[in-house]
Amino acid sequence: MKTRPAGIGNVNADWMGSLPSKLSAMPLKHLAVPGSHDSFTYWVDVHAPVGPDQKVYVKYLATMFSVLAKKVMVKWSMTQNLTFMEQLDAGIRYFDLRVSSKPGETGNEIYFIHGLFGHKVRDGLLEINSFLNKHRKEVVFLDFNHYYAMEAEHHVYLLSMLQEVFGGKLCSNCSVENITLDYLWEKKYQVIVFYHHPSGQAIPVMWPGNKIPAPWANTTEPNKLIQFLETTLKERAKQGSFHVSQAILTPRVNTVAKGLVWGLRNYLVERNLPTIMSWVAAQRPGVDGVNIITSDFVELTDFANIVIKLNNLLLSEKDRNPR
């Protein structure tokens, strides 16, 4: 059995349901919500072929130096250590999801992917649904934003799966301004799915990708990342969408080459986390503030707790200490 990392418990398993009524009545786009980047990468299959999301030269190297190349890829493909359930228990409510069929495999099975194939999507969705069944006031954002090697029949399969697994928990696409926790609780909605593909447009419970922009800094430098996050927050649309601040650094080819044996966590993430987390802790939610914030390796700091506590800034002293 996988051991739960030190310091991770279920202290935030019901944080949405525990918010003061003033916050549950606010549009969810004005609350601070912790999320994870490449949320499913806590396990990847080193025995499967390299994913179709990879460049040709990576596929070639993996073919020529199979075992060695994949060991390196694992270190740079994994951006999370916690399972879906552990992330949910820790307070994560936004999931960044990339999916693919497995070329050469019969049937329409869909897998999570980030360089290497991960678990079947169905297994991940069932795990999330199991959590939601036990925590009826918690709400998750599922952002399906990248699709690889998927034909029309694969999309039909995935869209049917989402509706089958979550059923009446799925929130219908509507005005973002109407989405408050009070509204969702009243309707018994717990899942908002964003489907960044035309095949989802005709389905009322699939939200379009333009309602959850997630600008990407694409940099290895923390100062450039913070400048980008500040700029994109100022440019955030006033109406019609949620907003994702991706507080992540992205390795380049030379980054991987220099830190080949260390991997993403040891070479790039850990050394820069203090700078990034200082920025996160200094934010404020609300009309012109942060909404969803994502991170790699969410267990390395008190990330989820720090983001959740930002919501206290929306309360007056009277709200915080009611008689």
Main CATH class: Alpha Beta
Number of helices: 12
Number of domains: 1
The biggest sheet amounts to:
9 strands, mixed
Poorly predicted tracts of residues: 1-7, 56-62
Structural class: alpha/beta
GO molecular function: phosphoric diester hydrolase activity
Domain Phosphatidylinositol-specific phospholipase C X: 27-196
Keywords: Hydrolase, Lipid degradation, Lipid metabolism, Transducer
Protein name: PI-PLC X domain-containing protein 2-like
Please provide a written account of the structure.
The chain is an alpha/beta fold and 323 residues long. The chain has a single domain (16-316), classed as TIM Barrel (Alpha-Beta Barrel), CATH 3.20.20.190. Helices cover 36% and strands 13% of the residues. Strands 1, 2, 3, 4, 5, 6, 7, 8 and 9 form a nine-stranded mixed beta sheet that branches. Helix 8 crosses helix 10. The radius of gyration is 19 Å and the shape is globular.
Can you give me a brief rundown of this structure?
With 323 residues, the protein is an alpha/beta fold. The chain contains twelve helices and nine strands.
Produce the secondary structure layout.
Layout: H1 21-24, E1 33-36, H2 56-64, H3 66-77, H4 84-90, E2 94-100, E3 111-114, E4 116-120, H5 121-134, E5 140-148, H6 152-166, H7 181-187, E6 191-195, E7 206-207, H8 222-234, E8 244-246, H9 253-258, H10 263-281, E9 292-295, H11 303-309, H12 317-320
Parallel strand pairs: 1-2, 1-9, 2-5, 5-6, 6-7, 8-9
Antiparallel strand pairs: 2-3, 3-4
Helix pairs in contact: 2-3, 4-5, 5-6, 8-10
